[in-house]
Amino acid sequence: MIAGIVVKSTGSWYLVLLEDNSIIKCRIVGKFKINGFKLTNPVGVGDYVRLEMEQSNNDEEISGVIKEILPRQNYIVRQSPRQLHYLHLLAANVDQAFLLTTIKEPNLKQGFIDRFLLMTEPQNIPTFIIFNKSDLLEAADLEVFESMKNIYESIGYVVKLVSANDPKSLAVLKTILKDKSTFLCGQSGVGKSTLINSLQPHLDIKTEEISDYSGKGQHTTTFAEMHLLDFGGKIIDSPGIKSLSYNNLSLQDVAHNFREIFEVSSECKYGDCLHRNEPKCMVKQKVNEGTIDVNRYINYLQILDEIENQNYWELHTDM
Ligand SMILES: Nc1nc2c(ncn2[C@@H]2O[C@H](COP(=O)(O)OP(=O)(O)O)[C@@H](O)[C@H]2O)c(=O)[nH]1
Ligand SMILES: [Mg+2]
Ligand SMILES: [Zn+2]
């Protein structure tokens, strides 16, 4: 059998990069699950697979069948936005993640940062929080950035401020990206595709003009896709995410994956404290003292509520 790595996954077909650098379009047969959840796409970008060539008895383009998915080092899933009880596999076998965000255009939504972190944190994937579009920031915006930097650095994340067109920024990012497989995520419009184009100009990925025309969406990234970096490494562009819900996580999973909350939770009176209304809760004490960021705490509570209510969170509801 032939071995390769999945570079694009649409759910109905997959592009696999083979050792001889050719790319072959594949399909897959069979049903696959992760932790008992059904998957909209059983194979993710970054998966190592074995495949067989398919005999072409008609004009179909498809020319390979994935027979085996090799064990994953890790994976990134999200709840499917359309089918509530399905998971969507975004990427597999990543070394690190870039969470791209902005202060302006689009406006900062701290809740979104906290939700994204909940995708990578359960798998212990090192995540860099990168604020793009530094060129748009004025003094007041820079203050907002500094306060975000303080919050997230104090809980152990690396925070950067960059501009997708600034050579110095690109040099910094290249040193982090080199020889690693990096999952790039962030809400639409923050500049993911622009950044990849700047890092790797020959790729010429379509970017989105957010401002004027209404031809909605046809130029944006619809599926996760891996791009090889000529200075070494791989980057996985992910589709513009509009909502992130976590019905696949338990309440305790959420409590364990807000780092600063988990850190002090051993000092709560109850071992299974969820830090809501329980007495003698160290998390609430730290929030009151100001050592745990109150907005992170509010986002945490909201995610718990949603999971309990099986509610569906929309980006468009203001946080
Ligand atoms: N001013 C400024 N605009 C940027 C920057 N990076 C991207 N953009 C613009 O933001 C818009 C959305 O970018 P795109 O790469 O499509 O975002 P994506 O949805 O995250 O892939 C485009 O109009 C880009 O030109 C930046 O660093 N500064
Ligand atoms: Mg894009
Ligand atoms: Zn507690």
Beta fraction: 15-25%
What structural category characterises the helix and strand content?
alpha/beta
Radius of gyration: 21 Å
What is the CATH H-level superfamily of the largest domain? P-loop containing nucleotide triphosphate hydrolases
Q: Strand-and-helix sequence, N→C?
A: EEEEEEEEEEHEHEHEHEEHHHH
User: Please, how many helices?
Assistant: 8
Classified by CATH, the class of the largest domain is Alpha Beta
Total of domains: 3
Q: How are the strands of the largest sheet arranged?
A: 12-11-10-13-15-14
> Would you tell me which CATH topology of the largest domain applies?
Rossmann fold
List unreliable stretches of 5+ residues. 210-220, 313-319
Shape descriptor reads globular
The percentage helix is: 25-40%
The description of the largest β-sheet is: 6 strands, mixed
Structure description:
The strands form three sheets. This protein has a six-stranded mixed beta sheet, sandwiched between helices. A five-stranded mixed beta barrel has the order 1-2-3-7-6. The chain is built from eight helices and 15 strands. A hairpin with a 4-residue loop joins strand 2 and strand 3. It is 26% helix and 24% strand. The longest helix is centred in the middle third of the chain and has 16 residues, at 139-154. The termini are far apart. The protein is globular and about 70 Å long. The chain folds into three domains: 2-89, Nucleic acid-binding proteins (OB fold (Dihydrolipoamide Acetyltransferase, E2P)), CATH 2.40.50; 96-237, Rossmann fold, CATH 3.40.50; 251-309, Probable gtpase engc, domain 3 (Ribonucleotide Reductase Protein R1, domain 1, Orthogonal Bundle). It has 319 residues and is α/β, with parallel strands linked by helices. Bound molecules: guanosine-5'-diphosphate (GDP), magnesium ion and zinc ion (ZN). Residues 132-133, 135-136, 163-165, 186, 188-194, 207-210, 220-221, 240 line the site of guanosine-5'-diphosphate.
